[in-house]
Amino acid sequence: MIRLLAAIGAATLALLAAIGRVSMFTAETLSHLVRGPFYGRAFGVALLQIGYFSLPVVGLTALFTGGALALQIYSGGARFSAEAVVPQIVAIGMVRELGPVLVGLMVAARVTSSIAAEIATMKVTEQIDALVTLSTNPMKYLTLPRVLAATLVVPLLVAVGDTIGILGGYIVGTERLGFNAASYLQNTVDFLEAKDIISSLAKGAVFGFIAALMGCYYGMHSSEGAAGVGRSTKGAVVAASVLILAANFFLTEAFFSA
């Protein structure tokens, strides 16, 4: 019993210590927003890598998810003679939940892993130490541009994902399920509200911030050697994915609680 309590206490202390380290890392990153210099080239490269090169995976994921969602809603709705609600539920499901969450998880899989591996490799090969000797702040040069770029560009990816997901539902609905094209589009537009779109974009910004921050944090705190780089990459993706899902719950509660 004593060993069990000791293990629980040790795990709790380790969790609190990790939360403290991440909080301090976040505060240090944000503090550089108001202090120069700002590395515009690094920011532009991050925008391109996080935004543009994520479009294919985001588009394909959203397209097939929207199509599958339409099929599932139609099949389930048929039990209650409610097949006509497919356009509305596909739209609200993609915009409120599936679009932002799937884009966030795809960004975590693609971008967080890339950032963590790159920065961890720089650390174990002493490139970060070289930046310090050149009077370049690693947080300002490596972390801030990536975090800022992800926070700004992931909402755009979410908007693209929402649109393509609805398009996937539209294609399946009209070509496979026999919906009238004009009626499907009209029902989609009429059912969505401004709050749905705002919540989707806000989630995108938060998820982008989390994904980039976790990649930078784990990269900066990587241990030595190739195994350390692997552990940092794995830890970054897992942490980002879990935090994105947790943040999604609290954001949904904030936007849509009665």
How does this model look, in words?
With about 260 residues, the protein is mainly alpha-helical. It has helices at about 1-30, 40-50, 55-75, 85-125, 125-135, 140-175, 180-190, 195-220, 225-255. Helix 8 (about 195-220) runs antiparallel to helix 9. The radius of gyration is 21 Å and the shape is globular. The termini are far apart. The chain folds into two domains: about 1-35; about 40-255, no CATH class. It is found in: Cell inner membrane; Membrane. It comes from Cognatiyoonia koreensis. Could be part of an ABC transporter complex.
Element-level helix/strand string: HHHHHHHHH
What is the beta-strand fraction?
A: under 5%
Report Rg.
21 Å
Our count of helices gives: 9
The structure class reads: mainly alpha
Q: Estimate the global geometry from the Cα principal axes.
A: globular
pLDDT averaged residue by residue: 90
State the distance separating the first and last CA atoms: 43 Å
Number of spatially distinct domains: 2
Biggest sheet features: none
Helix content: over 70%
Number of strands: 0
Pfam family, one: MlaE
Membrane topology: Multi-pass membrane protein
Family: Belongs to the MlaE permease family.
Keywords: Cell inner membrane, Cell membrane, Membrane, Transmembrane, Transmembrane helix, Transport
